[in-house]
Prior knowledge:
Blueprint: E1 9-11, H1 15-26, E2 34-38, H2 45-59, E3 75-80, E4 83-89, H3 96-100, E5 111-116, E6 128-135, E7 142-150, E8 153-154, E9 163-167, E10 175-181, E11 184-190, H4 195-211, E12 219-223, E13 228-232, H5 239-243, H6 252-266, E14 272-274, E15 280-282, H7 288-295, H8 297-306, H9 309-328, E16 336-338, E17 347-350, E18 353-356, E19 363-365, H10 369-375, H11 384-397, H12 404-433, H13 442-453, H14 460-469, H15 472-475
Parallel strand pairs: 2-5, 2-6, 4-5
Antiparallel strand pairs: 1-7, 3-4, 6-7, 7-8, 9-10, 10-11, 11-13, 12-13, 14-15, 16-19, 17-18
Amino acid sequence: MRIATNSSKIDISKENKTASLAKNFSTFLNKGDIVFLHGEIGAGKTTFVRYLINYLQLRSKKSLSEVTSPTFNIMNEYQIKNLIINHFDLFRIEKTKDLQNTGLFNDYKSKLTLVEWPEKIISKPKNRYELFFTFNKDTNKRFLKIKKIIFGLEIKENLGENKYVQIKGDASFRTFLRKSKGKTSSIIVYCKKEKKKNLLNYDAINKNLIKNKIIAPKLYYQNYKNNFIEIEDLGKKTIFEIFSKKNNDKNLKIYKDIILSLLKIQKIKTKKIKNFMGDYYKVPVYTNAKIFDESKLFCDWYVAANKKKKDIKKINLQLKKIIKSLIKKIMLKNDTFVHRDFHISNIIPCKNSYGILDSQDAVIGNKAYDLASLIDDVRFQTSRKLKAKLFSYYIDINKNKINKIEFENDFYILSVLRNLKIIGIFTRLSLRDQKNQYLKLIPYAWKLIENRIKNKPVFKDLKFFLNKNFSANLRKKYAN
Length: 480
């Protein structure tokens, strides 16, 4: 039996039709899915859920449970191997406070959530199935209409034609889904906040990379009005995910290959690209003023969150003065295409080379910036020995093109300022966006800063200032 399109009303008057439909529908469900079941008492919601859960149990060769409506205890839980199913009935819920106490969407990404009487929910998840159970006046005919909702929009396609699975996001406002059909797949990128940068500019930069024979996601479809684009899926495992399963000091060859890819990126001269709206996007210059604004995120968020209120203003005034002094000591020109987040979480093996992700923040800036981003990557710890080898490798293959003293000076300064910025951003992600997982990376960001300022005269004032105002215990605050 093929499940009909979203617009179809399916006759489920006979129970065997309900059973067959539930069996088919169960094959489309994944961990993290949410299913809303609408309909009056007696419309067939719980019967459908019973067959759905029982078919999932049969498929896993588990004994069948007696599935009843959790009208009185609000939620029944079923476990089928590593899948937890939460079956809610919100009929008795009267107040929003009572709904919050049910734990309705707690850790929902690791479960399958089925909800009867979802009309009680005010703030609905953007990705869900909506099932509408109805009957005729004589109640002898029952019908079911199924809708697939993604980003709050109804998907006009046969249900089950494509699978949509939410995948790991990043520090931006974007949400990512992998859309797959058989062996083919694509990535849906949704972004409502800052969507110009994260959708329009992102695609423009990708076009620039592709034009210069760098692998980046191609645009398949855009629905900018409704805040999403569909792009090429370059693969499921980034270099970060690959390295995380190995001894990272054995990855020198891959790092060297990535540096060769970086050299290709640094040769890009195109500064204007037409976006999918038909307008030209000009790659901005990474000015000293912009570097300062980003570095002071450390002041605006980390200092504000970790120092006494009476000391914040004085500390920030002193630190901003030191940051400005360091920026003035940067020697190289802003004349190079800079990805700005060039680290192994944004690099993916693809087509016997490497694909580049997350390029929306690209600028024309300092040649040392992306190398600092790669070598002093806060998300992945590497030894000082490996860092030194990678830096030397870049210098050796560019020895006739760069001034080593100037490049090294800028590499150190930009690495330190970048990691001050990152500490500020990670603090902001926790306080503003409740993304607390980034806090655990802050102690290593401090270590990266300490490593770079240790024996460099240019950091004399910064080293003294940081040691005076930020103790070793504070720097380790979020460890483990």
